[in-house]
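Let us practice reading a record.
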Amino acid sequence: MGAFPFHLEATDGAARAGRFETPRGAIETPAFMPVGTAGTVKALTLDQVRAAGARILLGNTYHLMLRPGAERVARLGGLHRFMGWEGPILTDSGGFQVMSLAKIAKVGEAGVEFQSHIDGARHALSPERSIAIQADLMGADIAMQLDQCIAWPADEEAAAAALRLSARWGMRCKAAFGARDGQALFGIQQGSTFEALRRESSQRLLETGFDGYAIGGLAVGEGHDAMCGVLDYAVDLLPADRPRYLMGVGKPPDLVEAAARGVDLFDCVLPTRSGRHGQAFTRDGPIHLGNARFADDDAPLDAANACPASANYSKAYLHHLVKSKEILGQVLLSWHNLAFYHGLMDGLRGAIREHRLEVFRRSFQARYRAPADQPTAGSPI
């Protein structure tokens, strides 16, 4: 068993409902983690984040190490105190942002050297430094191993080299992390869309041994069907008695299908990023409040939702806020979207516990429709 107890309480096919115990509170799974990129869930107060249903947040190592600086966060009491969040925090390793945002990234056995996208300053991120930032300086409840993230599509040779480097980095992360009370370390499965490589990666992770396991390298452009095809086998390669975390996913249909295949934890910027760009998620699919058809729509986004942003404001008013570029529109839509995502998690947990997941899944698929003109959500953060 890992650092934190994980209790599998119900199954329905491959889907699981469980309880992940941390010193800062229990997490009912499947669970969604809002992304607090720079120590904040964009556009929302933490009271709103809690009210939306969040019990665990994700913090971003890359952004926080650049600004305000990991050592400064440590001097100010660690990330929980710095941002005012009393619940558990999972921090990513920084590897994905180094590859996607840094101006120049040089990858080698020692780690990654890169230039900050903020000011061009040069930095080095080794497995040991990544663990020191996450676990020691910021005090994360769950730290992630440093891994090499490669772009999609990737050829098999490049994907194999990346997963093997990630496996070696994972061993170094484990050695640097050691045995800790009150903190956990997750390993990351890689291998792109190649089954043999996913199997090799999983075996290497199991040989090292982690407190939980993540599935990386998906939702990077391969599409929903290809992602599900990988999850059909990749999830079962990871231990059943530990949490399974699908990184950076995603849209509501992705969450439903991944949970049906046995994934326990999710994170994504999409709820708040979409809200900042005028998009709301609903049970009938995403809608854009800037569209003229909402100008005289007096109905709320979801009268049955306990979230005030969902039930207390008309679509006409939200349309007005979006068209006027008022900050309040971004706040309300981001709040509603987080509440929608956590409501979806509640529905999945209930369906699994009551052994009616397939009914829930078919009902969701029949009702949820993404329009062809769905806008892109903008910035990757």
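A brief commentary: The chain has two domains: 6-273, 275-367.
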